[in-house]
Each structure stands twice: as structure tokens, then as C-alpha cells.
Amino acid sequence: MDVLIFIVSGTLAAATALLFAAMGELVAEKSGMLNLGIEGMMATGAAMGFVALSVSGSHSVGFLAAAVLGAVLSLIYAMLTLVFRANQVASGLAIGILGLGLSSAIGKNYEGKTVTGLEELDLGPLSDIPLLGPMFFQQDVMVYLSIVLIFATWYLLNRTKLGLIIRAIGESPESAHALGLKVRLIRAGCVAFGGAMAGIGGAYMSTAYTPLWAEGMIAGRGWIVVALTVFGTWIVKRVAFGAYLFGSISLLELSIQAFGVNVPSQLMSAMPYIVTIVMLAVISRNPVFIRLNSPASLGATLKLN
Amino acid sequence: MAEPTPLLRLRGVTKAYPAVLANDAVDLDVMPGEIHAVLGENGAGKSTLMKIIYGSVRPDAGTVEWNGQPVDIQSPAMARELGIGMVFQHFSLFDTLTAAENISLAVPGTIAELSERIRAASAQFGLDVEPGARVQSMTVGERQRIEILRCILQEPRLIIMDEPTSVLPPQGILKLFETLRALASEGIGIVFISHKLDEIRALCDTATVMRGGRVVGVVDPRVEDAQSLTRMMIGREIAPPTHGAERGDRHTVLEVTGLNYTPEDPFATVLKDVHLSVRSGEILGIAGVSGNGQDALTRALAGEIVLRSDKGSSVMLEGTPIGALGPDGRRALGVNFIPEERLGRGAVPIHTLAENVGLTTHHGGLVKWGFLRLGQRRQLASDTIDTMDVRCGGPDATAQSLSGGNLQKFIVGRELALRPKVLIASQPTWGVDVGAAAAIRQKLIDLRDEGAAVLIVSEELEEIFEICDRIQVMFRGRLSEAVRVRTTDINHVGLAMAGDFDALHAAPVEKEAALG
Prior knowledge:
The structure holds two protein chains of two kinds. The radius of gyration of chain A is 19 Å and the shape is globular. The longest helix of chain A has 29 residues, at about 1-30. Chain A is mostly helical. Chain A has helices spanning about 1-30, 40-55, 60-85, 90-105, 130-135, 140-160, 160-170, 175-180, 185-210, 220-230, 235-260, 265-285, 285-295. The N and C termini of chain A lie far apart (about 60 Å). Chain A is about 70% helix and about 0% strand. Chain A has one domain (about 1-295): ABC transporter involved in vitamin B12 uptake, BtuC (Orthogonal Bundle). By secondary structure, chain B is of the alpha/beta class. Chain B folds into three domains: about 10-235, P-loop containing nucleotide triphosphate hydrolases (Rossmann fold, 3-Layer(aba) Sandwich), CATH 3.40.50.300; about 245-335 and about 420-515, P-loop containing nucleotide triphosphate hydrolases (Rossmann fold), CATH 3.40.50.300; about 345-420, no CATH class. In chain B, strand 19, helix 14 (about 435-450) and strand 20 (about 455-460) form a beta-alpha-beta unit. Classes of the chains: A mainly alpha, B alpha/beta. Chains A and B meet through helix 7, helix 8 and helix 13 of A and helix 2 of B.
């Protein structure tokens, strides 16, 4: 029982950082913007959130600072690609590298230090339910917010006018422009949202999941986020499923080590990445489905005058 | 008696681009409820004029009056606010969205409200559209109807239609005309851009004829005949193409049997059991609205799609199977292909004409010991330019610097220089001006008269009836049986283009003049 509680509750926490960043990236990619700088934005968010929390003592300030800096970084990417029409892939990679450098500069004097993590939200009697309580209802507020974000993202993209406009721009920015939609503005907004969410996801890593700062602590999660959106075929529930799958496998890894099973640790560390990508690739084979959901202009340089 | 105020009045509108005077002191009056044709060849300045009216291009000089008031239309958004709507030639629809969602991007209101309005307007103007259907599964005609509905629901006073019939089968054109007449009877002014004379004569109240950026006449098209309009539009007579007599020894050169092919793109048309044969000394025309499998068919014939024999699909050249060969192998055997996209597929845009000529003709002695023979290549390019009367800056001009018609003439000339046994041409005169189109058609007929087998894929029925000996119709990946051009007419082929292949055989026999 304890193992089950450990895995389920741990999965929810482990997936949270990915969910924030992935929902943000999903919205950005739906508008046609392939932001490959997520890894750097998460790292910057992690460093910024940690420092802001250390200085202010407030978790809210930490998350806010991380979100703002993530959004600022992503707006540089938006400016390069939307105003100067730079290649999306190259710009994204460059901003990602900039973000990694920025994170180590911001966190330089805090290397190895710790902070108090986020407290569990008091849900009263819910937390006391046997089995279910410790599995689902002894989590911090960001875990619940990340679940709210899944539904909010789905609702935004599929049930609102703004979502329709985002999808239309992602499919054909030229046609959208001809209809008088503000392509650059909407895309910049989507990218900024993605950057802010990546910042929050990064800050969750450094101030809640493992409340310490160490350079390189994002460890490729930004790339997993990019993979989640693509292999999740830009469908909210599949992306969320991928995030939880990733979280659960990384928990499984810890449990197996705890049981003393002798598997090379490198293989174990690679497992979440391998399993998540293989699973998503397998469930996403239907080409019609991919065509219907993929933003056709993703990654293409804007051709408006 | 005071003249009624025109809805739109242009006076002396002029727009110069660095190399060309696109509009030179153009005057245009459109009355409420009038269907007004703007007629002219490609490059006559029609598009620039429409862009000025729609606010996406600003004129250098001249005035625009809207309902008698001078206006300065600064953007498409402003044009829409005034009540000017535009239906584009290339649709600006989103494939993955539904009809109602597409319309809601331009028209305020919830999807439910809009669906209601769409149904009402559909009924009123004869525009069948299912609001909840996704665009990607729709025919070109349905897509156009959504475009028109989107325009109508913005309640415009003036609608600009940019070459709206170029994508429709004949029956669809008649239906569109009914819709346009219904709109005009509501007092909406319609500007109808076209270069098809018979359509303008059937539909429009007034025609403004443009040539070289100027207005060369404002006429009543119903009282003019096609010849006088043509003369006005291009400034000279165009001789109808001349056919040589049919030859006796017509043997089958290219034969396709049981061709099945499923493209990778899940929304592309699947070819189902296609049969065709082209004999020497004839032109076979494949009619049909584009998107019905023509792209896959031409690729399969040209070798861009290599067929595996195990599916029973066979392509034979004079009895030899060639289905397993790629484009280069087939060209070496005399099967040449002219694709519909000139820039990027028929020619490399940034390469010179001399370099482009070498793309397909290197088998013909342009390569020795692995080295290019640049002198010969240049000579071949010069010869092609001369024989085809290509207007360009010589063999060193880049392909992209030529107009569409001139580049197409060059590409046709390049393929003809190879003296093909089989020539496959996809939309050979698409987007080409009338003069160049006539020259290209004549060259294709000459090739046929020399005994080659020619296969033309075309959306323009006039073209097919003008130059082809036999017709097959393509619909949803299937190909009808072949009929002789002289035993059918445009209406029956039109029915077949909408899927009724039996109509081809119901056609009256021995009809000499298919075009009325």
C-alpha cells in the first residue's frame, strides 16, 4: 500500500512542473510557434524563483518572478521570429542556450542552498480519507493548479473564440492575416504565456519539488515538454497523459532502487524519457488525427508583409 | 434627369511599381445592383485595381468615391467597414475548422447564432453549406460557397469576385451565376473579375476592359461578341488552333491499367482502378475539377510515384512496363512531363534559363565524361527561346524573372526539344495569358501531328474541347471511359465532372461545335 501511495502521490508532484510547461508550450505551438527554448526558460524560472523566494520569503513572489522572467525570455524569441522573421528553430535554440546561461548567472551565489518547500494544502477531511487521502489530497497548491490548468487549456483551445483564433493562426497565418486577425499579437501572447508557464514549471522544481538550487537541475525536462506536445499530437489530454506517464515512471525508478533491484542506474534514469516517447508515438499513429490537430504552420517563418 | 449615384466611383486611379505602371488613370463606376465585369489578360492591372478598392494597396494618384463621398481606403479592415467584401481566388479557409467556425472568424456571433444565419442565407441565395462540416472534406465548390457566405454575412454593399469560376465545374458556374443575380437583385453591386468572355457575356451588365494598366473600353458585354471583346482585351486577333488530319497508323503508346494508389497525405484523393491509353498522333484530355486525383495520376505517369507491380497497377510504354522506373528513367525512354507548378517543379526559380534547360535535357548530349557542356546548353536555351518566342533577357535570365506565360512557353519548348514519344502536360495554360496559351496549344497540336502521344490534364473544358481528340473525366480518384470529343459536349462532360459518368454516353452523337 505504501508503495502505491508513494507512486500515485509522487506522480502528481513529479508531473506538475511538466504540466505547467507543457500546457504553455501547447498553446504556443497551437498558434504555430515552435518554442525550442523551453529548457532554458524552465532553468531560468527555477533560478529566478529560487532567488526571489530566498530574498522575499514568499512562494508567490518566487513563482511570479519566475513567470515574468520566463515571459520576457520568450518575448525575445517572439520578437526574433515575428518581427525580424528569424528561423524559429534556430531562434528557439539560441534563446534556450541564453536561458541556461542566465540561470547559472542568477543562481551563482545560491548554488547548493535550500529553501523551505511549499506546504501541503489543508483540504480538511479529504486528506484523512484512508488510501485516497494520502494519494490525492496531501499535495501542495501548485499540483491542483496544474490540474486546473489542463482543463483551462482544453477549454480555451476548444470552446472559446480566442482558442478558435489561435488554432486558425496556427493553421494558416496568411489566411488569418487576410481576415484581419492580429497574427503577430496573438502569437506573441501565446508565446509569452508559454514562457510564463515554463518559468513557473521551473520554479516548481527548485522551490517545491526539490527545494534547492543546483545548476542543471531541469535536466532535459524542457525537451520532454517539447516531445510531449509533439508526440501528444497537440491534444490536451494526451499531453497531460504523457506528463503523468513520465512522472510515474520516474517514481517507479526510485521505488525499484529502494527495493534493491539491480538495474544499471543510467538505464533507469533514461526509462521515463524512453517509455514516454514510445507510448505517445504508439498511441498517436493515426495520420488523419495528426493532420486535424497539428498546427500546419508550426515552425514556418512568417510570410506576412 | 439626374444620374443615380454610383456605389463606387474611381477616377484617374494610378499605381506605379518599379518596373511597371500597373494602373494608369483608371476610371470605374459600379452602380448598386449591377454586375460589373473587369476584363483583361493576366498583367492587365485587374488585381492591382481590386487591391486598391479593397484597401490592401494605396494608389499613387486618383480618387475613390463611395456613395458619392470621397474616401481613402487605408486597409482591408476599413474596406469591410465601408461595406466592401471580397471573395478571393485562392481561398483563405482553414481546413481543420468547420464551416461555421471559419465564418465566425470574420463575422461576430456565437457558433450557434451563425449556424442559424448560415442556413438562412444558404436557402435565400442557393448556397448549400452544412455549417458543422469540416472544410477539409469539402469540394472546391463548397469551399467557395463558404467564402461567399462569409462575405455575405458581413452585409456588404459591394462584393469583389476574383476569378470565381476558375475552380468550378460548368454546373457549379451556372449555380454561382444564380447566386450572384440573387445578390444583385438585393441591390448589392458585384465586381466580377474574369478573362472568360462567354461567362461575362452571360452574366454581366457592364464590362470594363483593361489592357496594359489602362481602361481600353467600357461596353455592354451582352451586345458585343467574343471576337470584339478579345480584340479589345489583347489588342489583336488570335487565330484558332489548326489541327492536322488524323493519321492512319495510330498505335497505343502509353497504356495504364488497374492503377491503384493511396497517397501518404490522408486527405489526398486515392486513385481507384484507373485505366487509360494514349495512341500516337492523338491528344487525350483528362477533364475534372482539380483535387480529384489528377495530381497523383500525373505523378504516377511521370515517375514521381514509382509503382510496385504487386498491386496490379501497370504503366506500359509501347508494351514495355515502365511503372518501376523513376522520372529520369522514363524521360530516357521518351516520356516527358510538364508539371502545373512552373516555379519550383518545372523550373528552379533562381537558376538561369540555360541551367534550367539542362535539368531535363542532359541526356541529349549536354554531358560528356561527366562534365557539362556549357556552350551546347546555352545554345539549346537560346534555340528554345527563339522557337517558342519567349520574351526574356536571354539564356542568362533567371526563371523567376519571366512572366508565367513566358516561362511556361520556355518549359514547353524545352520538353519539345527532346522530341518526346509521350508528353504529359498538367494544366499547360493555367495562369497563362491568352496569347501565350494559344501558342502553347498550337505547339501541343503540332507535336500530336508529328505522331507523338499527348496527354493533357486540364480544368478548363474550353481548352480540352479545343485541342483534344478524346476525353476522360476524373472524379474522386476514378477515371471515366474515354469518349471522342466530337461525340459529346460541354454540358455532358460537366455532368461527368460531378460524378455522373453515364452522362458521357448519353451525349448526342456528332456535335461539331461544342462551344456555343
